[in-house]
Amino acid sequence: MHNSVIVSTGRYLPETVISNEDLTQFSPDAIHLIGEKTGVFSRRMASENECTSDLAAQAALNCLAKVGHSPEQVEAILLATSSPDRMQPATAARVQYIIGAKKAFAFDINSVCSGSAFGIALANALIKSGYCSNILLIASEVYSRIMNQKDYTTYPFFGDGAGAVLFQATETSSHGVIHSCLKTDGSGGDIISVPSGGTMLPFSKIENPRAAFFRMKGPDVFSFACEKAPEIVRQLLEEAHVSIRDIKCFICHQANVNIIYKIANILDVSMDRFFMNLSSYGNTASASVLIALDEAISTGVIERDDLIVTVAFGGGLSWGANLIRI
Amino acid sequence: MNEVFHKINEVITDYLFDIGNISIHPETRLADLPDWDSISAVSIQMMIHEHFQADLPLELFHNDATFGELMTHVAQSHSTNQDTLPFSSIQ
Questions:
Q1: Nearest CA of chain B to the CA of A29: how many Å?
Q2: In this predicted complex, what is the ipTM?
Q3: What would the pLDDT profile of A116-175 be if each residue is shown by its tens digit?
Q4: Structure-derived torsion over alpha carbons of residues A275, A268, A285, A7, reported in degrees to the nearest 10
Q5: What is each CA distance from A59 to A4, A8, A12, A218, B77, in whole angstroms?
Q6: Partner of A315 for a Cys bridge, out of A101, A122, A192, A200, CB 3.0 to 4.6 A?
Q7: CB distance from B57 to chain A under 8 Å?
């Protein structure tokens, strides 16, 4: 059986930086609360002519260029996104076209903010099965287009961005994805959602335009994340027979600084082992883990041979974790 | 005032994710709303700004404040600003 090793990572953050003070639709006395409640002080915003596939393509090209891997050699593109270009076709198909990965099949994964966790597990399974010898996993989001700019419960906390990872099959290495755990609880499907635009509430039936925007029940998300993320990390490590002390770095979904503090506290792990970039980019949904992974590797926080855990949670409800040796 | 509270009940779920079965009356306290927190306070502040054309300071949206008190502040704000917009014309 093959192992799937990470041979490269990449990211793309749009140039436009939006600070909390730029959010003038909210009252000045509400601005300081954004950083206090979430740890977000600025975020990136896609330009008018950029959509999810454009960000994904830039992250992908950045990832491939680092190791001189031609797009034409890519066998499969898995794109995690919950803010796709269009209802159909798959956003991954446009990415395949933009980057020129002519031989790759491509499809989307919508596990909302857990997309990276599901994508890593799926890429690993496809490689382990022998179906692919390399896979480009991308996660890309443009939440600025699916949120109501005047909704204080969502708009200040999210940002746009994309991350990418190139997995390669290897027969000999002990590196790569070691173990994954994935979970779903569909009973919580209304806690995080874009209520309309699908077959449940088609656009033709929308009475309230706000139903077209992303909505999130923050307190429920907080409770869910703080319960399930530590639980699945413990399960992951137990099943892999790995001690939590051996984990060099935790790459957690960058949802909210207080959620990450709580998870670290429950796991009894110091915060300096949790990589953080939330203050600069906000919550980039499925992209946050892959962006953080690339940043942690490129800044030397994570080095070759390090054992890391990625953990993500989000709409569905869904959550997942991966144990990886870099 | 009935018209004002009819309006509040009509639009409040646009600003707060879920208010359960609560109907908003003048004596309803902000803290009576499910999952009430500082994020909810800003959301109600936004609702008043957009639907009642009044910019009230966030400090007025404390746990014990009632919707009746907030609407009094809205009326005072209009009066102070010599804004003659009556509640009956609220969009």
A1: 6
A2: 0.76
A3: 999 999 999 999 999 999 999 999 999 999 999 989 999 999 999 999 999 999 987 789
A4: 50
A5: 20, 11, 5, 29, 50
A6: A192
A7: yes
